[in-house]
Specification:
Layout: H1 4-34, H2 45-64, H3 76-99, H4 109-136, E1 143-149, H5 151-165, E2 169-176, E3 185-186, E4 189-194, H6 198-204, E5 209-212, H7 220-229, E6 232-236, E7 247-253, E8 256-262, H8 268-303, E9 309-315, E10 321-327, H9 334-338, E11 365-366, E12 372-373, H10 376-382, H11 390-396, E13 400-402, H12 409-412, E14 428-430, H13 444-456, H14 460-475
Parallel strand pairs: 1-2, 1-5, 2-4, 5-6, 13-14
Antiparallel strand pairs: 3-4, 6-8, 7-8, 9-10, 11-12
Helix pairs in contact: 1-2, 1-4, 1-8, 2-3, 3-4, 6-7, 8-11
């Protein structure tokens, strides 16, 4: 779904947001030191416009000059040099703007220099702290790349490419088109499977992108099978082929020109807006989660002794496994009891698990007269309050506010090639399936159609509509999340 430019912006959106926050803090501090008589530093048009220009200059400079590349691996000195370069360019553009404004003489030069100084100090400290947080909680997501090539290319061209790819990709391994060396390795890179086994490997393992070197040795059937999985395909131009049903564009991977095929080509600005929206929405959602905790924690504890939160492994974007959080609405032995209830599953193929009345839910009970009693667990699920801890997953980057439903590990094991396409984006707290009457949809193929429709037609406007419809359903008590 993402071009290289989009991926870089997506992974660096948190640093961009951090820089903008530091710019605003530096502006307020510098303004207060120099001009302490006015209470609102944003009230004056001249100073406010100057701040807007600096923010725009920062966004333009960092995105166009790729100043965030290699951020996670830069040491103290390299970070210092990169930030120095960024600060000089941004504040030079700000100074040029002042020269073009007729009231520039009213702008305090001391405020301008103090702002530059405070921005550099704040941004440098915050970047170092953010790196530590990302490393501690493993928030630095690098795309997993599978390389398909012949043996000769794997031994000659691939090693140099890997050294260039290291900033944006983790090469999970090789698949050879002209020989089978499964469980072996070439130049330290493991050979995972043969070319014929690639679709099955991609379908059940974490692979974000596939890079094909020497495309003349790859069959059209393999390209079409890969296309069906929804994985992003980079095809070296020398072996250019048409991949049915996919968007295609020029790209650059590891220093070579390729034709990239994907389900949806998202523009860098769209990806940046989506990630910034996730960060801001995630912060709001986490605040709401904390408030809900004050009320739900006692109710859960009283009704069913055990942990307040439920943690479960789910499969995220392109097969990456992560821990998803929820308020616990079921008894602690719910996973064990699930095996006993398989025959009552409304979804016959087992691709999802739905019951008309789930006895594992806290408070659910069948009375002696055959009537059914519900409790706090049913209320939490019906109102979707159990889903709010997933906003912590959104902040971590495992999920997005809007996306597709993340499958459990046992559901994922049953996936066929075309099912895997729904995992080509991040899973969401809400999505197309949730607002389309999730409790009434028992055909997994219908879920796949809704998800692929969302991916192919995705836009910022569509996300906004889904969020608004979700909020409306929550207020009506329909439980859309």
């Amino acid at each position: 779904m993402y071009t290289q430019a989009s991926k870089k912006l997506f992974h660096n959106a948190d640093i961009m947001l951090l820089d903008l926050i530091c710019l605003n803090i530096a502006f307020v501090i510098a303004y207060r030191i120099r001009i302490s008589t006015v209470t609102n530093p944003y009230a004056g048009a001249l100073y406010r416009d100057m701040l807007i220009i600096l923010c725009l200059a920062d966004l333009l400079t960092t995105s166009q000059l790729s100043l965030y590349n290699g951020f996670a691996r830069r040491g103290y000195y390299k970070e210092f040099i990169a930030l120095t370069k960024q600060s000089i360019i941004v504040f030079s553009l700000g100074a040029l703007y002042l020269f073009s404004v007729k009231d520039a003489h009213k702008f305090s030069r001391i405020t301008f220099f103090l702002m530059a100084l405070f921005f550099f100090f704040l941004s440098y400290v915050m970047r170092l702290l953010w790196k530590r947080i990302k490393r501690k909680y493993q928030l630095d997501k690098i795309s997993s790349l599978l390389i398909i090539s012949d043996r000769h290319s794997a031994m000659t061209a691939v090693p140099e490419m890997i050294s260039r790819l290291r900033w944006n990709y983790s090469v999970c391994g090789l698949a050879l088109t002209d020989t089978d060396l499964s469980d072996g390795e070439i130049n330290g890179v493991p050979v995972l499977c043969s070319a014929e086994q690639v679709p099955e490997y991609v379908c059940h393992n974490w692979v974000d992108d596939v890079l094909i070197i020497g495309g003349d040795t790859v069959s059209p059937e393999l390209l079409n099978d890969l296309s069906e999985t929804g994985v992003v395909i980079h095809l070296h131009i020398s072996g250019m082929e048409t991949v049915l049903g996919q968007k295609q564009f020029m790209d650059n991977i590891g220093g070579v020109s390729v034709i990239t095929s994907c389900m949806k080509e998202a523009q860098p600005l769209e990806i940046l807006i989506k990630r910034l929206g996730d960060v801001l929405g995630g912060l709001v959602g986490c605040v709401v989660t904390v408030l809900l905790f004050l009320f739900l924690a006692p109710a859960i504890k009283i009704s069913s002794p055990g942990p307040i939160f439920f943690e479960q492994k789910r499969v995220g974007r392109n097969g990456k496994v992560f821990n998803m959080y929820k308020f616990r609405s079921m008894h602690t032995d719910a996973e064990e009891r699930k095996k006993e209830l398989v025959t009552a599953n409304r979804v016959s193929d087992g691709m999802m698990f739905k019951l008309d009345f789930d006895p594992r839910i806290i408070g659910n009970e069948v009375l002696p007269d055959g009537s059914r009693k519900t409790g706090v667990g049913n209320f939490i699920r019906r109102t979707s309050l159990d889903e709010f801890p997933q906003f912590f997953n959104v902040l971590k980057g495992d999920m997005s506010i809007v996306g597709t439903r993340p499958p459990t590990l046992d559901e994922y094991e049953k996936y066929e090639l075309h099912h895997r396409a729904r995992l080509s984006i991040k899973p969401g707290v809400t999505g197309m399936w949730q607002i389309s009457g999730r409790s009434n949809i028992t055909d997994f193929e219908e879920v796949v159609k809704l998800d692929t429709k969302y991916i192919n037609e995705w836009s910022i406007g569509m996300d906004i509509k889904i969020i608004l419809k979700t909020i409306g359903m929550l207020f009506r008590g329909d439980g859309a999340m």
